[in-house]
Structures are given as C-alpha cells and as structure tokens.
Write a structure and sequence with these properties.
Length: 341
C-alpha cells in the first residue's frame, strides 16, 4: 500500500444510504486487515481525523468530512468450531450483513434469522447492537477482534467488555473512534429456537401458509414485513429507523395510557416501558409529511427519508423538528439512533 492508494476530495454519495452528497478530504479502501495496520503504522499520523466506514447505513453526514475515511471492505466467513448444539462462526467486518445471514441459513444455523435484511455490514453490527423482531446481536455474540487506530495493535473484546445495551455498545461511548472492528464471532444454534412472538411475524407466517416454520421461514417472513414497511435505500435515501424507541418509567406510562389507550408499548427486562417511537411521531402528525426533499416515510413514521438532493443539514433540521414536536406533546425526548457525522 502506498500514498497513491489514498484519494483526495472523494465523494461519499454512493457510500451512505441517505445518499447525501458529502465529500471527504481523503479516502482509502481496506481489503485486508494487514493493509489497515500498514496504513496506521506508516502514514496515519498525517491524518489525525479518521472515520471508519462500512456500509454507510447508520450514519448521516451533516457536512463534508475534513479527515480521512477508511472504508473497510474485508471479506471472509468461517466456522471456527462446532458441537452437537452450536457452531461458532467468524465473519469479517466488510461482509454485507444480510448476505451473512443468508450464509448462516444455508448452513442451517439459527439465531440471526430475525435480523434479516438489516442494512449495513458485519462490522457495524456490534457497534449498534443491531436488533429487530425480538432479537439483538448480543443474544448470539461471543467476541470480536478490533484494531487500535493509534498503533495498529489488535485486541479481543469479550461480550462483557462490549457493554451492550439497547442500540448501544462501548464503541459508541468511551471507545468511539478508537478502534476498527476486524471481525465478529457468533454462537449460532444447530437446535433451532424460533422467536415468532414479536411484531407481525406470526401473522405473516399465517399469510404465507406456513404452519410449521423453520429458520428460513422466519427470515422470509421478516423480509416480507420489512419490505412492506421500510423504503429501499437504493430507491429512497434512508437509514431505516432514525430514532430509538424511548424508555420511560411505568408510572409515567400509566399517565400516558390514560390519555392514549391505544399507545404502543411493552415492558423491558429492567421494568421500564419502551414506547414505539413511530407511534409517537405518527401521533404528532409527521407520518408522510414532506418538506422539500425531506420527510418521514408514509408507511413508517420512524424512517427519515431523503427524496433526492437533500443535504445532511436539512435532514438533521427536520429530525430536530420531530424531536421538539414529540417532546412538546408527550414530554418524551427522542434520541437519534443514527450516528451524525
């Protein structure tokens, strides 16, 4: 790898699912972990601002990026070990997440079928602790390998060290921008345990005529549901759910429920009540509302969309108006799930 591998004034429009036409001062692609280490040891000091990019599905560029974007495009999936009940599967961070899910289904390994069609790459999955339809990455996670962006040293992070929480991990907190994730290892099931109780999975399976579902049936049901509710980033710029579902105390939930009996919510394992952010946004009248080239999607109010040509600043301004509106009506402060750069 040489300095000729580094491109200048590079457009990121096709590398973020919002389709925002931001540019970075410098750009480099990484296809092997040793290439990243070589870059970090031999020239990275010239670029104090570094941003790791995978699928670009969970970030919103508010403006041009003044540093270097390091685009991780590493590939590889392997079964490290297995027994009668489990297989330990290692996947490189540049693998497309949904392709990885399909690979696991082909091996008849269960545990992440509910996470089908989530956009992005494998490396972003633990940062965000991705989750959908009653399953989170942490449920099957064992460890990950990461590279220190200062000296190129490698480190293994265990489950406990990742400090997973709802759409959160240590990599969004104290270790933010300190590491590039190289690979993750998951413990997947050979003896399948299906999770069909969340959302509309059972209803969709019934519509599909499936009476005795397997893991691929669950995956297909999730894919059908997501396609019916969420816009395709290839057609309309978006990053999926833009806001986290907020958690409130049960006492305050009872007050809200008295005023809004139809409120959509459920109790968490900690005793807090998680409110559907999409319901809050819709009740504030934002569903399907468009302002210029920005809006909340007509089928899912939780999704902020770029209809074409909107800047990151315009998208953020629209999101902030939604936050203000929900807080004024319900006293609940929505938090952005997407990483604003």
């Amino acid at each position: 790898m040489t300095t000729s591998s580094i491109l200048e004034n590079y457009s990121l429009k096709t590398l973020n699912t919002f389709g925002v036409d931001a540019r970075c001062r410098y750009y480099i692609e990484i296809h092997q972990p040793q290439d990243l280490k070589k870059f970090l040891l031999n020239g990275s000091k010239s670029y104090p601002q570094k941003l790791i990019l995978g699928g670009g599905s969970n970030m919103l560029f508010s403006s041009d990026y003044p540093g270097i974007v390091i685009h991780i495009k590493t590939k590889g999936i392997e079964i490290l070990s297995e027994d009668d009940n489990y297989a330990y599967v290692k996947a490189s961070s540049g693998e497309v997440w949904h392709d990885f899910v399909l690979w696991c289904l082909d091996q008849n390994l269960g545990g992440i079928e509910n996470l089908s069609l989530i956009p992005g790459c494998v490396g972003a999955a633990p940062i965000q602790n991705i989750g959908a339809y009653g399953v989170e990455l942490k449920d099957v996670f064992t460890e990950l390998e990461a590279m220190d962006l200062e000296d190129g040293s490698r480190r293994i992070f265990t489950y406990d060290e990742c400090r997973f929480a709802y759409r959160d991990s240590i990599f969004k907190g104290e270790e933010k921008n300190h590491y590039a994730i190289i690979s993750i290892t998951l413990r997947l099931n050979k003896q399948h345990v299906l999770n069909t109780s969340y959302g509309a999975i059972e209803e969709e399976l019934s519509r599909m005529g499936v009476k005795s579902p397997g893991i691929r049936d669950i995956s297909n049901a999730v894919i059908n549901i997501r396609k019916s509710k969420l816009p395709d980033p290839a057609e309309i710029g978006n990053a999926g759910s833009f806001f986290k579902n907020p958690e409130i105390a049960e006492s305050y939930f009872e007050e809200l429920k008295a005023k809004h009996p139809e409120i959509v919510a459920y109790k968490t394992s900690t005793g807090m009540i998680k409110i559907a952010a999409g319901w809050l946004i819709e009740k504030c009248g934002w569903k399907g509302i468009r302002s210029g080239q920005v809006g909340m999607h007509a089928k899912q109010a939780l999704v902020l969309v770029n209809y074409g040509g909107a800047s990151g600043e315009e998208l953020i301004m629209h999101a902030d108006k939604v936050i203000e509106s929900v807080h004024e009506k319900f006293g609940i402060l929505l938090e952005k799930e997407v990483n604003v750069i």
